[in-house]
Design brief:
The model has no long low-confidence stretch (mean pLDDT about 95). Strands 5-3-15-14-13-12 form a six-stranded mixed beta sheet, with helices on one face. Strands 1-2-6-9-4 form a five-stranded mixed beta sheet, with helices on one face. It has seven helices and 17 strands. The chain has helices spanning about 80-90, 130-140, 200-205, 215-230, 250-270, 300-320, 335-340; strands at about 15-20, 25-30, 40-45, 50, 65, 70, 95, 105, 110-115, 160, 165, 165-175, 180-185, 240-250, 280-290, 325, 330. It is globular, with a radius of gyration of 19 Å.
Length: about 350
Protein backbone atom coordinates (compact mmCIF):
# COMPACT_ATOMS: atom_id res chain seq x y z
CA UNK A 1 0.00 0.00 0.00
CA UNK A 2 1.40 3.39 -1.00
CA UNK A 3 0.78 6.77 0.63
CA UNK A 4 1.80 9.04 -2.28
CA UNK A 5 4.74 10.39 -0.30
CA UNK A 6 8.53 10.29 -0.15
CA UNK A 7 8.24 7.44 2.35
CA UNK A 8 7.00 5.16 -0.44
CA UNK A 9 10.71 4.81 -1.21
CA UNK A 10 11.15 1.98 1.25
CA UNK A 11 13.56 2.69 4.07
CA UNK A 12 13.17 6.47 4.06
CA UNK A 13 11.45 8.16 6.98
CA UNK A 14 10.45 11.78 7.42
CA UNK A 15 10.16 13.73 10.66
CA UNK A 16 9.03 17.30 11.33
CA UNK A 17 9.71 19.61 14.25
CA UNK A 18 7.31 22.58 14.19
CA UNK A 19 7.72 25.71 16.30
CA UNK A 20 4.80 28.15 16.47
CA UNK A 21 4.01 30.87 19.01
CA UNK A 22 6.06 33.24 21.18
CA UNK A 23 7.38 34.93 18.06
CA UNK A 24 8.18 31.63 16.32
CA UNK A 25 6.94 30.48 12.93
CA UNK A 26 9.60 28.05 11.81
CA UNK A 27 10.79 24.46 12.04
CA UNK A 28 12.90 21.70 10.55
CA UNK A 29 12.29 18.55 8.53
CA UNK A 30 14.60 15.53 8.44
CA UNK A 31 14.71 12.78 5.82
CA UNK A 32 16.29 9.78 7.55
CA UNK A 33 17.94 7.15 5.36
CA UNK A 34 17.90 3.43 6.20
CA UNK A 35 20.76 1.83 8.14
CA UNK A 36 23.82 1.93 5.91
CA UNK A 37 22.74 5.21 4.33
CA UNK A 38 21.72 6.20 0.82
CA UNK A 39 23.74 7.42 -2.17
CA UNK A 40 23.34 11.20 -2.20
CA UNK A 41 23.88 14.17 -4.49
CA UNK A 42 22.76 17.79 -4.75
CA UNK A 43 22.13 20.49 -7.34
CA UNK A 44 21.94 24.15 -6.31
CA UNK A 45 20.32 26.56 -8.78
CA UNK A 46 19.29 29.51 -6.61
CA UNK A 47 21.55 32.55 -6.36
CA UNK A 48 21.33 32.87 -2.58
CA UNK A 49 21.65 29.38 -1.09
CA UNK A 50 22.27 28.51 2.53
CA UNK A 51 23.70 25.00 2.75
CA UNK A 52 25.91 22.66 4.76
CA UNK A 53 28.03 19.69 3.59
CA UNK A 54 26.96 20.00 -0.05
CA UNK A 55 30.57 19.84 -1.28
CA UNK A 56 30.81 16.35 0.20
CA UNK A 57 28.13 15.24 -2.27
CA UNK A 58 30.16 16.12 -5.35
CA UNK A 59 30.69 12.86 -7.31
CA UNK A 60 34.43 13.60 -7.38
CA UNK A 61 34.66 13.49 -3.59
CA UNK A 62 35.01 10.72 -1.03
CA UNK A 63 31.64 10.42 0.67
CA UNK A 64 29.29 8.04 -1.14
CA UNK A 65 26.33 7.80 1.23
CA UNK A 66 24.59 9.90 3.87
CA UNK A 67 22.34 8.95 6.76
CA UNK A 68 20.10 12.02 6.79
CA UNK A 69 19.24 15.25 4.99
CA UNK A 70 18.04 18.31 6.90
CA UNK A 71 15.71 20.98 5.54
CA UNK A 72 15.30 23.89 7.91
CA UNK A 73 13.90 27.34 8.45
CA UNK A 74 15.89 30.14 10.04
CA UNK A 75 18.06 31.05 7.06
CA UNK A 76 21.77 30.33 7.67
CA UNK A 77 21.19 30.38 11.43
CA UNK A 78 18.88 27.39 11.09
CA UNK A 79 21.67 25.21 9.70
CA UNK A 80 22.58 24.67 13.35
CA UNK A 81 19.68 22.18 13.42
CA UNK A 82 21.91 19.73 11.53
CA UNK A 83 24.16 19.56 14.61
CA UNK A 84 21.34 17.94 16.55
CA UNK A 85 20.90 15.34 13.83
CA UNK A 86 24.65 14.65 13.77
CA UNK A 87 24.67 14.08 17.52
CA UNK A 88 21.74 11.65 17.28
CA UNK A 89 23.48 9.70 14.51
CA UNK A 90 26.81 9.64 16.34
CA UNK A 91 25.15 8.13 19.41
CA UNK A 92 24.05 5.24 17.18
CA UNK A 93 27.41 4.78 15.47
CA UNK A 94 26.07 5.97 12.12
CA UNK A 95 28.37 7.91 9.84
CA UNK A 96 31.69 7.69 8.03
CA UNK A 97 34.03 5.41 9.99
CA UNK A 98 37.21 7.34 10.79
CA UNK A 99 38.84 5.26 13.54
CA UNK A 100 39.33 1.74 14.93
CA UNK A 101 36.29 1.82 17.20
CA UNK A 102 32.71 1.43 15.95
CA UNK A 103 31.90 4.72 17.67
CA UNK A 104 34.60 6.57 15.72
CA UNK A 105 32.27 8.02 13.09
CA UNK A 106 31.58 11.39 11.53
CA UNK A 107 27.99 11.63 10.30
CA UNK A 108 27.74 13.55 7.05
CA UNK A 109 24.44 15.45 7.25
CA UNK A 110 23.78 17.72 4.26
CA UNK A 111 21.41 20.56 5.04
CA UNK A 112 19.75 23.50 3.35
CA UNK A 113 17.69 26.36 4.71
CA UNK A 114 14.85 28.63 3.72
CA UNK A 115 14.46 32.25 4.73
CA UNK A 116 11.64 32.70 7.26
CA UNK A 117 13.29 35.07 9.73
CA UNK A 118 10.83 37.29 11.57
CA UNK A 119 7.71 35.74 10.08
CA UNK A 120 6.48 34.82 13.54
CA UNK A 121 7.37 38.24 14.90
CA UNK A 122 10.73 37.47 16.51
CA UNK A 123 13.74 37.72 14.19
CA UNK A 124 15.82 35.66 16.63
CA UNK A 125 13.38 32.73 16.69
CA UNK A 126 15.00 30.10 14.54
CA UNK A 127 15.69 26.34 14.61
CA UNK A 128 18.66 25.13 16.64
CA UNK A 129 20.28 21.78 17.39
CA UNK A 130 17.40 20.81 19.70
CA UNK A 131 14.89 21.35 16.90
CA UNK A 132 16.97 19.21 14.54
CA UNK A 133 17.17 16.46 17.13
CA UNK A 134 13.40 16.59 17.63
CA UNK A 135 12.87 16.22 13.87
CA UNK A 136 15.19 13.21 13.50
CA UNK A 137 13.64 11.57 16.56
CA UNK A 138 10.21 12.04 14.97
CA UNK A 139 11.51 10.46 11.77
CA UNK A 140 13.00 7.48 13.62
CA UNK A 141 9.77 6.95 15.55
CA UNK A 142 7.71 6.71 12.36
CA UNK A 143 6.70 3.43 10.82
CA UNK A 144 8.19 2.50 7.43
CA UNK A 145 5.97 3.77 4.65
CA UNK A 146 4.07 6.11 6.99
CA UNK A 147 2.16 9.10 5.59
CA UNK A 148 3.97 12.43 5.70
CA UNK A 149 2.33 15.54 7.16
CA UNK A 150 2.00 18.37 4.63
CA UNK A 151 1.35 22.09 4.77
CA UNK A 152 2.58 24.36 7.56
CA UNK A 153 4.79 21.83 9.33
CA UNK A 154 8.51 21.37 9.86
CA UNK A 155 10.65 23.45 7.55
CA UNK A 156 7.48 24.64 5.81
CA UNK A 157 5.99 26.25 8.93
CA UNK A 158 7.05 29.77 7.99
CA UNK A 159 7.25 29.24 4.23
CA UNK A 160 5.58 31.61 1.76
CA UNK A 161 5.29 31.62 -2.01
CA UNK A 162 4.74 34.98 -3.59
CA UNK A 163 2.06 36.59 -1.42
CA UNK A 164 0.43 33.37 -0.21
CA UNK A 165 1.32 30.75 2.37
CA UNK A 166 3.66 27.98 1.35
CA UNK A 167 4.65 24.80 3.13
CA UNK A 168 5.63 21.16 2.73
CA UNK A 169 4.29 18.87 0.01
CA UNK A 170 5.16 15.35 -1.07
CA UNK A 171 4.29 12.84 -3.79
CA UNK A 172 5.46 9.52 -5.26
CA UNK A 173 5.00 7.18 -8.20
CA UNK A 174 5.57 3.51 -8.94
CA UNK A 175 6.99 3.26 -12.45
CA UNK A 176 6.19 0.46 -14.89
CA UNK A 177 9.72 -0.82 -14.33
CA UNK A 178 8.93 -1.41 -10.67
CA UNK A 179 11.12 1.48 -9.52
CA UNK A 180 9.66 3.89 -6.98
CA UNK A 181 10.41 7.61 -7.09
CA UNK A 182 9.32 10.12 -4.46
CA UNK A 183 9.73 13.82 -3.72
CA UNK A 184 9.33 16.12 -0.76
CA UNK A 185 9.35 19.89 -1.23
CA UNK A 186 9.51 22.91 1.05
CA UNK A 187 7.81 25.55 -1.08
CA UNK A 188 9.10 29.04 -0.19
CA UNK A 189 9.71 31.19 -3.25
CA UNK A 190 10.04 34.78 -4.38
CA UNK A 191 8.05 33.82 -7.46
CA UNK A 192 4.40 32.83 -7.52
CA UNK A 193 2.60 29.52 -7.96
CA UNK A 194 -0.52 31.28 -9.26
CA UNK A 195 -1.20 32.25 -12.87
CA UNK A 196 -2.13 35.97 -12.68
CA UNK A 197 -4.48 35.70 -15.64
CA UNK A 198 -6.69 32.91 -14.32
CA UNK A 199 -5.88 32.23 -10.67
CA UNK A 200 -5.00 28.63 -11.53
CA UNK A 201 -1.92 27.02 -10.07
CA UNK A 202 0.83 26.77 -12.67
CA UNK A 203 1.52 23.19 -11.63
CA UNK A 204 -2.08 22.16 -12.19
CA UNK A 205 -2.30 23.90 -15.54
CA UNK A 206 0.55 21.67 -16.68
CA UNK A 207 -1.31 18.60 -15.46
CA UNK A 208 -4.20 19.60 -17.72
CA UNK A 209 -7.08 18.91 -15.37
CA UNK A 210 -7.72 22.22 -13.64
CA UNK A 211 -11.10 23.96 -13.55
CA UNK A 212 -10.35 27.67 -13.66
CA UNK A 213 -11.67 29.81 -10.80
CA UNK A 214 -14.61 31.97 -11.74
CA UNK A 215 -13.75 35.54 -12.78
CA UNK A 216 -15.50 36.90 -9.68
CA UNK A 217 -13.46 34.69 -7.34
CA UNK A 218 -10.24 35.56 -9.13
CA UNK A 219 -11.04 39.28 -9.00
CA UNK A 220 -11.79 39.10 -5.26
CA UNK A 221 -8.54 37.23 -4.65
CA UNK A 222 -6.63 39.89 -6.58
CA UNK A 223 -8.16 42.66 -4.47
CA UNK A 224 -7.25 40.84 -1.27
CA UNK A 225 -3.64 40.37 -2.37
CA UNK A 226 -3.39 44.01 -3.46
CA UNK A 227 -4.61 45.13 -0.04
CA UNK A 228 -2.04 42.96 1.71
CA UNK A 229 0.73 44.19 -0.58
CA UNK A 230 -0.09 47.78 0.41
CA UNK A 231 -0.02 46.86 4.11
CA UNK A 232 3.06 44.64 4.18
CA UNK A 233 6.25 44.74 2.13
CA UNK A 234 6.79 41.55 0.18
CA UNK A 235 9.68 39.35 1.37
CA UNK A 236 12.47 39.20 -1.17
CA UNK A 237 14.40 36.46 0.65
CA UNK A 238 13.11 32.96 -0.04
CA UNK A 239 14.12 29.49 -1.27
CA UNK A 240 12.49 26.26 -2.47
CA UNK A 241 14.05 23.03 -1.23
CA UNK A 242 13.42 19.46 -2.37
CA UNK A 243 14.51 15.92 -1.71
CA UNK A 244 13.95 13.54 -4.62
CA UNK A 245 14.52 9.87 -3.86
CA UNK A 246 14.35 6.50 -5.56
CA UNK A 247 14.90 2.86 -4.68
CA UNK A 248 16.84 2.45 -7.93
CA UNK A 249 20.53 1.64 -7.80
CA UNK A 250 22.30 4.87 -8.83
CA UNK A 251 25.86 6.15 -8.79
CA UNK A 252 26.57 9.55 -7.26
CA UNK A 253 26.85 11.03 -10.75
CA UNK A 254 23.46 9.61 -11.72
CA UNK A 255 21.96 10.91 -8.48
CA UNK A 256 23.36 14.35 -9.25
CA UNK A 257 21.68 14.22 -12.67
CA UNK A 258 18.40 13.35 -10.93
CA UNK A 259 18.77 16.37 -8.64
CA UNK A 260 19.47 18.62 -11.61
CA UNK A 261 16.54 17.49 -13.73
CA UNK A 262 14.22 17.72 -10.71
CA UNK A 263 14.79 21.49 -10.73
CA UNK A 264 12.62 21.52 -13.87
CA UNK A 265 9.74 20.64 -11.56
CA UNK A 266 10.29 23.85 -9.61
CA UNK A 267 10.44 25.95 -12.77
CA UNK A 268 7.14 24.46 -14.00
CA UNK A 269 5.27 25.26 -10.78
CA UNK A 270 6.89 28.54 -9.67
CA UNK A 271 7.47 31.58 -11.87
CA UNK A 272 10.04 32.99 -11.84
CA UNK A 273 12.35 30.48 -10.18
CA UNK A 274 16.07 30.26 -9.37
CA UNK A 275 16.47 33.99 -8.81
CA UNK A 276 19.43 35.62 -7.10
CA UNK A 277 17.48 35.95 -3.86
CA UNK A 278 16.22 32.36 -3.98
CA UNK A 279 18.43 29.55 -2.77
CA UNK A 280 16.71 26.75 -4.68
CA UNK A 281 18.39 23.45 -3.78
CA UNK A 282 17.48 19.86 -4.65
CA UNK A 283 18.97 16.80 -2.97
CA UNK A 284 18.75 13.32 -4.52
CA UNK A 285 18.84 10.05 -2.58
CA UNK A 286 19.09 6.51 -3.95
CA UNK A 287 18.60 3.55 -1.61
CA UNK A 288 19.74 1.06 -4.27
CA UNK A 289 17.34 -1.77 -3.46
CA UNK A 290 16.00 -2.00 -7.01
CA UNK A 291 18.42 -2.74 -9.83
CA UNK A 292 17.14 -1.49 -13.22
CA UNK A 293 16.28 -4.35 -15.59
CA UNK A 294 18.15 -2.66 -18.45
CA UNK A 295 21.88 -2.02 -18.38
CA UNK A 296 21.45 0.87 -20.81
CA UNK A 297 22.24 4.26 -19.27
CA UNK A 298 19.10 5.57 -20.97
CA UNK A 299 17.04 3.48 -18.56
CA UNK A 300 17.61 6.33 -16.10
CA UNK A 301 15.44 8.64 -18.19
CA UNK A 302 12.17 7.42 -16.68
CA UNK A 303 13.49 8.15 -13.19
CA UNK A 304 14.67 11.63 -14.23
CA UNK A 305 11.32 12.50 -15.81
CA UNK A 306 9.42 11.22 -12.78
CA UNK A 307 11.55 13.27 -10.41
CA UNK A 308 10.70 16.53 -12.17
CA UNK A 309 7.00 15.65 -12.40
CA UNK A 310 6.85 14.78 -8.72
CA UNK A 311 8.47 18.03 -7.63
CA UNK A 312 5.79 19.92 -9.54
CA UNK A 313 3.05 17.83 -7.96
CA UNK A 314 4.57 18.20 -4.49
CA UNK A 315 4.60 21.99 -4.86
CA UNK A 316 0.92 21.95 -5.80
CA UNK A 317 0.17 19.84 -2.75
CA UNK A 318 2.20 22.14 -0.51
CA UNK A 319 0.28 25.20 -1.66
CA UNK A 320 -3.08 23.45 -1.34
CA UNK A 321 -2.28 22.03 2.11
CA UNK A 322 -1.03 25.33 3.53
CA UNK A 323 -3.20 27.25 6.00
CA UNK A 324 -3.49 31.01 6.33
CA UNK A 325 -1.28 32.78 8.85
CA UNK A 326 -1.93 36.17 10.46
CA UNK A 327 0.31 37.36 13.27
CA UNK A 328 2.87 39.90 14.43
CA UNK A 329 5.21 38.91 11.61
CA UNK A 330 2.67 39.43 8.84
CA UNK A 331 -0.38 38.01 7.06
CA UNK A 332 -0.25 35.34 4.38
CA UNK A 333 -3.55 33.95 3.12
CA UNK A 334 -3.68 30.39 1.88
CA UNK A 335 -4.60 29.54 -1.67
CA UNK A 336 -7.65 27.71 -0.34
CA UNK A 337 -8.81 30.85 1.51
CA UNK A 338 -8.45 32.99 -1.60
CA UNK A 339 -9.99 30.56 -4.07
CA UNK A 340 -11.99 28.17 -1.91
CA UNK A 341 -10.97 25.11 -3.89
Amino acid sequence: MTVDALTDVMGLRVGHATRIGDGRLTGATVVLAPEGGAVAAVDVRGGGPGTKETDALDPRNLVQKVDAVVLTGGSAYGLDSASGVMAWLEERGRGVRVGPEATHVVPVVPAACIFDLGRGGDFKARPDAAVGRAAVEAAAAGEPGAPVAEGCVGAGTGATIGQVKGGVGTASVLLDSGITVGALVVCNAVGSAIDPESGALYGELLQGHFDHPSPDVHEAAGRRLAELAAEMPRSLMNTTLAVVATDAELTKAQAQKLAGVAHDGIARAVRPAHLLNDGDTVFALATGTHRPASASPLALNEVLAAGADLVTRAIVRAVRAAESVAGPGGTWPSYEELYGR
